[in-house]
Amino acid sequence: MLFNWLWATLPSEINRSIFDFFSFGHICMGIVVFALLSLISTLRNLIDPNNFKVKMSHWFAFLIGTIIFGIFWELIENTLVYEWGLKYQNRQDSIVNAIFDIILVGLGGLMCLGCAYLLYEKIKKYEFVLFYIFDSLTFILFYVIYLVLQI
After folding, report:
1. pLDDT tens, 72-96?
2. CB neighbours (10 Å) of residue 139?
3. How far is it, in rounded angstroms, from Cα 128 to Cα 140?
4. Which residue in 36, 90, 102, 147 has a CA-CA distance of 20 to 30 Å to 10?
5. H or E segment and range at residue 72
């Protein structure tokens, strides 16, 4: 019974357990939000290439922004999406599931932050494309896992 509390093995346990197939979708969300926030900053810096600076404080701000987005998404998902009848099996997430969904969005952002940290010297030298390649490949990996588990 404890395993089912941790990982949803039956459709009735989805949105109730800590982890379900939607968990991988939340990791994907964190990757995409972090990448979009950093892309906005990158594009702004490309407009003025003489002023191109990437600071680690920016990357941490992107992580905080990703987590805040995850919180807002859970609020919207469990209010508006639920009221519109678009929620899976038309039921709200349990509190534990919603908290872990936010943590998983943050984990997706944290993976991107780790990549940014590893590539920090290269990103300073305009080789930021490596960061977006990593983000894209990581997103594809978790999205494929999400699709496979959804079946």
Report:
1. 999 999 999 999 999 988 899 999 9
2. 20
3. 19
4. 102
5. helix 56-76
Calculate helix-pair angle for 22-47, 95-118, nearest 10 degrees.
40
- Joined tokens for residue 27: 């990791």
Query: Which residues, including other chains, have CB under 8 Å from residue 66's CB and lie 6 or more apart?
Result: 30, 33, 34, 37, 105, 106, 108, 109, 112
pLDDT for res 51? 63
Q: Comparing C-alpha atoms, which of 1, 11, 6, 5 is closest to residue 149?
A: 11
Q: What is d(CA 17, CA 9) in angstroms, rounded to the nearest whole number?
A: 9
Bridge partners for 7 per DSSP: 19
For the chain, give every domain's residue range: 28-150
Has this prediction a pTM greater than 0.85?
yes
Which ranges in 77-128 belong to alpha helices (H)? 82-83, 95-118, 120-124
* pLDDT tops 60 at residue 113: yes
Number of residues in the chain: 151
Q: What is the pLDDT of residues 115-146, one digit of tens each?
A: 888 876 666 655 678 888 889 999 999 999 99
